[in-house]
């Protein structure tokens, strides 16, 4: 019997595999991660996380001070475009906590963009989220280093 949109998996390679993702063909574990992803694919997805998280980090740090009005610039728009990508392309390839952190940062970036365009003051800087983004970037870099050593 299929679970959600997953196909049944008759011979899982891992005890926690609950089915097969019909889009990618990868086995899916109980936490929603893909099992058996080729190393090169995993590296590419980790590089994408670094791109997104770095753009969001730079965007959310670029401000004069809390509650100060600030304009929206072409440079900020470029960072916004990179950082507010569709995270569905990363589903299953990265940990769900990373996805949640990126989604929170995207929501805050959208809020700040609206405030800047409207000429309103910016919300208080979320230093905890900025630290989390730095941490996610560092984790992705470590993943890449470890995976590259396996090649």
List keywords for this structure.
2 domains, 4 helices, 53% helix, 151 residues, elongated, three-stranded antiparallel beta sheet, mainly alpha, single chain
State the gist of this model.
The protein is mainly alpha-helical and 151 residues long. The chain has two domains: 1-36, no CATH class; 37-150, no CATH class.
Task: Tell me what portion of residues adopts beta-strand conformation.
Answer: 5-15%
Give the strand line-up of the largest sheet: 1-2-3
Domain count: 2
Q: What radius of gyration results from the CA coordinates? A: 18 Å
The ordered string of helix (H) and strand (E) elements is EEEHHHH
Give me the count of strands: 3
Gap from first CA to last CA: 37 Å
Tell me the layout of helices and strands.
Layout lengths: L16 E4 L6 E3 L4 E2 L3 H23 L12 H10 L12 H23 L8 H24 L1
Antiparallel strand pairs: 1-2, 2-3
Helix pairs in contact: 1-2, 1-3, 1-4, 3-4
Describe this structure in words.
The chain contains four helices and three strands; from the N terminus they run βββαααα. Helices cover 53% and strands 6% of the residues. Helix 3 (96-118) crosses helix 4. The chain has a three-stranded antiparallel beta sheet, with no helix packed on it. It is mainly alpha-helical. The longest helix is centred in the last third of the chain and has 24 residues, at 127-150. The chain has two domains: 1-36, no CATH class; 37-150, no CATH class. The chain has helices at 39-61, 74-83, 96-118, 127-150; strands at residues 17-20, 27-29, 34-35.
């Amino acid at each position: 019997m299929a679970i959600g949109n997953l196909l049944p998996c008759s011979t899982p390679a891992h005890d926690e595999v609950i089915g097969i993702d019909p889009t990618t063909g990868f086995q899916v574990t109980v936490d929603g991660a893909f099992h058996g992803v080729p190393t090169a694919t995993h590296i590419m997805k980790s590089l994408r996380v670094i791109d997104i998280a770095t753009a969001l980090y730079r965007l959310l740090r670029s401000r004069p001070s809390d509650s100060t009005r600030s304009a929206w610039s072409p440079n900020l728009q470029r960072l916004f475009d990179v950082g507010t990508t569709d995270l569905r392309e990363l589903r299953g390839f990265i940990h769900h906590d990373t996805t949640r952190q990126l989604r929170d940062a995207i929501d805050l970036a959208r809020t700040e963009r609206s405030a800047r365009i409207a000429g309103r003051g910016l919300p208080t800087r979320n230093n905890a989220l900025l630290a989390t983004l730095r941490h996610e970037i560092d984790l992705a870099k470590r993943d890449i280093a470890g995976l590259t050593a396996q090649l």
